[in-house]
Amino acid sequence: MVKRSHLPGLLVLAAVMLMLTPVEADAVSVILAQASQSFSSGSHEQFAQIGFDLGFGLGLGPCPGLQGCRPIVTPGQTGIFDFSVSNASNFGSTVARLTDANDEMLFMDETFYDPAGTFRLEVANLFRESDILGGLLTGRTIDFFRLIVDRNTVNSGPGGEFTYQADVTWQVWGPRPVVTEPSSLLLLGAGLAGVGVFAARKSASTAASSPRRLIGTAGSTPPTVAVTAMK
User: Fold this and answer.
1) Considering the entire predicted model, what is its pTM?
2) Predicted local confidence at residue 163, as pLDDT
């Protein structure tokens, strides 16, 4: 059983523990970083399919990007496309390099394909990942990547040249960061601490103002009171 005198201290202790306990927000994914890029290129060949990608190791091997040299849209098509471990061939390796402590060169590219889906042309740009993403994602968890194609046009020009233009945004999605000291818990903890202090002061005040009683032992001789008669 908890003694009443211990209650204020327990309330203060509970308040401190509540304020210091890490609490993670809901598991809904949020945007951790994003990068936008515009492409403009010309060719005498009219392409039937277009792909967009991002990743590391440009020029070091075949299709090193997230989704591995795969056409996504046709000329003129826009939309939103998600890539995760289930549909991106290089998802694991891309995530590993994005979440390490190294600030590497990240590429974003646009690739072109003929009607049979054969790769024909690539236009790529390189960026320092901390610059294009607004910082490193060291130690973070990535759930999926989202590609937003806002513009995707092709125009024919003089001499049979085709001009391709596109505006895209890559977003990195993952769990919300852990909140270590949420304001709601701070307010609740402060309230509990205040209740504990008030209870402690009230207990001390009551103890100071209560009259003290002399308790004798059964069978003991009552104290003798000397009375002096006035003359």
Assistant:
1) 0.68
2) 95
